[in-house]
Design goal:
Blueprint (H helix, E strand, L loop, with lengths): L8 H11 L2 H7 L8 H19 L3 H7 L2 E3 L4 E3 L4 H10 L18 H35 L2 H13 L2 E6 L15 E4 L5 E11 L8 E8 L12 E6 L1 E3 L5 E4 L2 E6 L10 E13 L6 H37 L23 H33 L3 H37 L1 H4 L5 H9 L8 H15 L3 H16 L10 H24 L2 H30 L6 H18 L2 H11 L2 H4 L7
Parallel strand pairs: 3-6
Antiparallel strand pairs: 1-2, 4-5, 5-11, 6-7, 7-11, 8-9, 10-11
Helix pairs in contact: 1-9, 1-16, 3-6, 4-6, 6-7, 6-8, 6-9, 8-9, 8-10, 8-12, 9-10, 9-16, 9-17, 10-12, 10-13, 10-14, 10-16, 13-16, 14-15, 15-16, 16-17, 16-18
């Protein structure tokens, strides 16, 4: 039984036009001035069609078939239909949708690229991993690549002729990149010989393209120890000279593909570099800084993956709840002409559906807001504005990556629960979404790493500049709508929580000065606490925007009532997280290791 998917165009258009007013934003950003609603809608409609008709039908079969690895040729065969779908993707110009026009892209803003990515990942997240890291490679090459590197590599990745990867992890170091051992020895002609093994490399080998461009972290011979001694290198599957001519096979080969819990249609590879020819990208020993150009792009993208899986699971759970007849409503039969009432009449089923709906729609608004910040950062001619949004998007990135992926685990599990036993078996497709969602909280930095980045780096080290700006924005919104009758159930709670957020953050910082273990003890709860308040802000904004929206009256009423559910049933989770934060580190560290 195949699950269905319909792109949530109405909600995305509400977010873009009513909530975020992107037409006004684009009118003042260089390179976006000609974008109007007709053009944006045409892109969204065509992306929805591609996702629904080309990618979605391959989702379940791709999971069942998985990828196959030929050890002798070190090659990967992707599931049936995947390669053809990629050819259609490239032919449609989607590979370079947001890439600069000077390198063959269409130059559209990230605010348009984000919903397109959501459609792709909802339709077929395993397929979506193949072009995913190309976007990050494009960013890294665009920002720090030499002119010849841009000509030789960037144009072909933008066109989709080649794809890109990120090669960070090694078996002994995981997320602790300061321990990596891959070596880079200088060659006489200016290239480098890269030797080492990388694991967990998404799309490290596949049959979509003739060449794959690996961006690899490695150490130069005289490099200092730790993260300060890491450099970044371009290592193509087939050698490429400085004129862009592709030559013989390079000394990099897949040694295996991982046997995984989910994303079975996505090739996750072990890559062996045996003196492979590579080129330095950026400055020596500054590879981690360069990699973060890709990493931050990827973290926002993985947040969208979590959102996309939640949406797909929710759509099917909602349909099932409307159709599946089970028992009678506690208050009496709602459909007396039928042998039983549909699941949707039952209070706890409605709780599960509304929990998904609030986390999805609030998360989508937050994610698209971040995309507008990225566009302002990349395109605004106002240096002060760029500095402001850089702090904001830096602050919000770990929240978006952490919250939207953790929400995906909750939402997909709730969807499976609504199906009951039918959800647990493969036939109905729900268990695939649970399996696929699980990795999103792990790769591109686990939830714990996002939380440490948020509290340890963005709050304590950087003195909370992004939080300060975000709280100013919330404060201005609350002041503007203080007398709005429609928002009377939201503004007082949001305003009080914003004040509490600032006070709790200050208290965390003071405890951390005395004992650094307080950061690790509080970080994950602090991320969730922050995320729930951020979603509350966007739910309140959504209610305000709905008053002036051209969407249907049913749509606007649903926004208001769903926001009420969020504020009454989900936002109180902040109480638990606050209590855990204030409990401190003592209960974590007073137990000796031997007592576990």
């Amino acid at each position: 039984m195949t699950t269905h998917y319909t792109a949530p165009l109405a909600d995305i258009r509400f977010d873009l036009y009513d909530l975020l007013d992107v037409e006004k934003l684009f009118a003042r950003l260089p390179g976006c001035e000609s974008l109007n609603r007709d053009t944006i809608d045409a892109v969204l409609d065509e992306a929805a069609r591609f996702a629904q008709t080309v990618l979605a039908p391959l989702n379940q079969s791709g999971d069942q078939q998985g990828c196959t690895f030929d050890k002798q040729s070190a090659s990967v065969k992707t599931p049936a239909g995947f390669k053809r779908a990629y050819e259609q993707f490239v032919a449609g110009g989607w590979a370079g949708l947001t890439a600069p026009e000077e390198f063959g892209g269409q130059g559209l803003p990230e605010t348009i690229g984000a919903p397109v990515k959501e459609f792709i990942d909802s339709a077929n997240i395993a397929w979506g991993t193949y072009p995913l890291l190309s976007h990050g490679a494009i960013e890294a090459l665009r920002v720090i690549g030499e002119d010849w590197q841009k000509q030789a590599f960037l144009k072909r990745i933008v066109s989709g002729e080649w794809t890109g990867t990120m090669c960070l992890t090694e078996s002994h170091c995981g997320s602790d990149l300061g321990l990596l051992k891959t070596r880079a020895e200088p060659n006489a002609e200016g290239s480098y010989a890269i030797t080492g093994t990388k694991i967990f490399i998404t799309s490290g080998e596949h049959d979509f393209t003739d060449n794959i461009v690996h961006l690899v972290l490695a150490r130069l011979p005289d490099a200092p120890t730790g993260v300060k001694g890491i450099s970044l290198f371009i290592v193509p599957k087939f050698k490429v000279d400085r004129e862009g001519k592709m030559g013989e096979r390079n000394a990099v080969r897949a040694g295996a593909i991982e046997h995984k819990m989910g994303l079975k249609g996505s090739a996750t590879c072990v890559l062996n570099f045996d003196g492979a020819q590579g080129y330095l990208l950026g400055e020596p020993n500054r590879g981690l800084n360069a990699m973060f150009v890709m990493m931050n792009t990827a973290r926002l993208a993985v947040g969208l993956q979590g959102l996309a899986l939640s949406e797909r699971a929710y759509q099917n759970a909602l349909s099932y709840a409307r159709e599946r007849l089970q028992m009678r409503a506690l208050s009496g039969a709602k459909f007396p002409d039928k042998p039983a009432d549909p699941l949707i009449v039952h209070g706890d089923v409605r709780r599960m559906l509304l929990t998904q709906k609030t986390l999805i729609e609030g998360g989508r608004a937050l994610g698209l807001y971040a995309a507008t910040l990225v566009d302002i950062l990349h395109r605004s001619s106002d240096e002060a504005e760029r500095k402001r949004v850089e702090a904001l998007v830096s602050f919000l990135t770990p929240i978006i990556k952490g919250m939207l992926t953790e929400n995906a685990i909750e939402c997909t599990n709730l969807a499976l629960q609504i199906y009951g036993g039918h959800g647990y078996i493969a036939e109905h497709g729900m268990e695939q979404y649970v399996r696929d969602a699980r990795i999103t909280t792990i790769y591109e930095g686990t939830t714990q790493i996002q939380a440490l980045d948020l509290l340890g780096r963005k709050i304590i080290q950087q003195r909370g500049e992004g939080l300060r700006l975000f709280l100013q924005e919330i404060g201005a919104f609350c002041a503007q709508h203080a007398d709005d009758e429609t928002l009377k159930g939201f503004i007082p709670k949001l305003s009080a929580l914003a004040k509490e957020w600032a006070e709790l953050t200050q208290a965390c910082g003071q405890r951390a000065i005395k004992n650094a273990d307080e950061i690790g003890a509080a970080a994950v709860d602090y991320l969730f606490y922050s995320g729930y308040i951020a979603l509350a802000y966007f739910w309140a904004r959504s209610v305000a925007a709905a008053q002036h929206s051209s969407q249907s009256e049913d749509f606007k009423q649903a926004k208001h009532l769903t926001a009420r559910f969020y504020f009454s049933r989900i936002l109180p989770r902040t109480r638990t997280h606050r209590a855990a934060i204030e409990a401190g580190e003592e209960s974590l560290f007073e137990i000796r290791d031997g007592l576990f």
